[in-house]
Amino acid sequence: MDLKPRFTLEVFAGGMVVLSALLAILVGLLEPRLLWVLIPLAALVALAVLLLARRMRRGLARVLQCESFENSQAQLSLGALALPVALLSGKTLVWYNTPFRQRILADEDRLLAPVGKVLCGLDLHQCGEPAGQVLEHEGRKYNIFASATAGREALTVLYLVDETDLRQRAAEYEATRPAYMIIEIDAYAEQLAELKDSEKARVLEGINRVLETYIGRTTGFLQRVSNARYIAVVEERHMKEMVAAKFDVLDKIRALEGEVNVTLSIGVGRGGDTLRQCEEMARQSLDMALGRGGDQAAVKTPEGFAFYGGVSRSVEKRSRVKSRIVAKALCDLIRQADSVLIMGHRMSDLDCVGAAIGVLRICKGLDAPAAIVVRREATLAQSVLEEFQAAGLGEDFISPEVALDGMTDNTLLLVVDTHIKGLLESGDVYRKCRQVAVIDHHRKAVGHIDNAVLFFHEPYASSTCELVSELLQYVEGQQFRPTSLEAEALLAGIMLDTRNFGIHTGVRTFEAAAYLRRMGAMTERVKLLFNSSLQEYTAKSNLVENADIYMGCAVSVSGELPPDMAVAVPQAANDLLTIQGVGASFVAVQQGSGVNISARSMGAVNVQVIMEQLGGGGHLTMAGAQLKDTTIDEAEKRIRQAIARYRQEQAEEEARSGKKR
Ligand SMILES: Nc1ncnc2c1ncn2[C@@H]1O[C@@H]2COP(=O)(O)O[C@H]3[C@@H](O)[C@H](n4cnc5c(N)ncnc54)O[C@@H]3COP(=O)(O)O[C@H]2[C@H]1O
Ligand SMILES: [Mn+2]
């Protein structure tokens, strides 16, 4: 039956016709007179055969469709089924029931037609899978299932389930799921609250207008719930568009003209099971957006967070970031991770190791497996590392190689005291970690980590240790109380970056120090951590002695120092500042084929800007740079050029503002 049954039937009928025609011709040749009778007779027979063949096929179809097929129970049961059902032999349609004829064949008989012509794109193999094949036919969507008998003359039963309505509803359901948005005006209290009422109204009018248009395009609604806050609920189909456009409303708000630069932070909860769940997710997202510095949108779905906007804009972040919120977010991240690695910058110093020790305390309090990644052979915090080793805590510090070995897909990397990829202790560890969080106080620079789920960046803090001390105060519980040793490491970090509370100190710096003192930090023991060896001291004195004064800046250069003398460089730069008439100091030392530079100031000179000219960075008062493939003479020339250029720009700026600093 498999071998073209249609062909067989037609050939048989045709063959009979041809045969009778031949016979008629033969008889006609033998007896021409009979021709007059034979020709009409042959035509009659041919007509009868054709008619019969047609009737036969129709009759066959009717029989197969089975009103009278009593002895076949299977056919009977399929015939009465409300679903369209068809029977195939190979790929040929050999039987179908009435619903199939009506809905798929448009009430025509297509028996023995190839099924591919009737249902375009049908894939019998896929129909045999448990999920079946979804096919569109005449504007309706069918899920088609097949079950086949094995063997050469394979028979297949096709069941067509009309899922048009179901699928339409499912798509509509997905598209109308609510997404919850919380929109907050950044630093409202600091900025807008102090404006004149008329000006404030103007700024708010601008914001309202932009937001109303933005939400007005959707089927959702917008509601201002407090001075600085709006909520909005929009349908998933519109949320999709907003995400695709990367929340361009942020740009529109930033472009508003006015006395102050307003920016927004947006938290979105999307894809939750309930509206309440979405609201909760939106709140977490807003916390994230604010914790990363604002001026951005954070979207939380059950899969995790995604962030839009807010990257590397040079607008200064004015909002005082809430440490409490960050502490909570940080704890959540640590809890979700298999293990935690804490890592600072290359040539780690007391601030970065101290901060790492503080963060490790939080991990320990949460019972999360955690370690600090540090190269003990290249560090400026040897004193702290030795003390912890002596206290039996050496295992908390591991090398990048060990860290790489013990890592899983779900390891969280906490970067402290830097946010620049190129300065990390180990780039490999960073690249292998999927989840990264950053805690830093350096001014945002190029090459910053851009995939952090949490970016706690406070350029106004004195040190990373100050930030971590604040975080420690916001996690509640006895288990988060730092030991006196840990408190001393944190205090050492603050003292390093403030040069013993000499510069860059704010109210919060002293509050953090007071907290650490309460936790048992002893200043006299902290001071010991800064003591240097006689060799280091001599190296430092030599550097100080060799300094030149150039345009009010002390510049000292030197050939290569022994590797363990590295700390003499920043210390010499610090000491040079104590000389009268020196506004900034620059100490450059050959290291391998490159040159390392430490720059310091008391605040009147912005050494960060000068070091940025050389590809470095840091802070207003404390910065550095690493020059590659440079001789020390060339480095000195470039430092002097950078100073000259800075002085010139300074003079121009003073001329413009018409006042002397
Ligand atoms: N290419 C680049 N791009 C962007 N930023 C760059 C950079 N190169 C350096 N910086 C930043 O400049 C700051 C100064 O670095 P520096 O090595 O002179 O000075 C370091 C360090 O050498 C120095 N230090 C460490 N131990 C010390 C000790 N026992 N006594 C005195 N100073 C110490 O304290 C300073 C701590 O500074 P901090 O980590 O906050 O910030 C650093 C660093 O993050
Ligand atoms: Mn540091």
From TrEMBL:
Q: What class of enzyme is it?
A: hydrolase
Q: Which domain of life is it from?
A: Bacteria
Tell me the protein's name. Cyclic-di-AMP phosphodiesterase
Q: What is the lineage of its organism?
A: Bacteria, Bacillati, Bacillota, Clostridia, Eubacteriales
Compartments in which it is found: Cell membrane
Q: Which residues form the GGDEF domain?
A: 176-302
Q: Gene3D superfamilies, per this entry?
A: 3.10.310.30, inorganic pyrophosphatase (n-terminal core) (3.90.1640.10)
Give the record's keywords alphabetically: Cell membrane, Hydrolase, Membrane, Transmembrane, Transmembrane helix
Q: Which organism is it from?
A: Allofournierella massiliensis
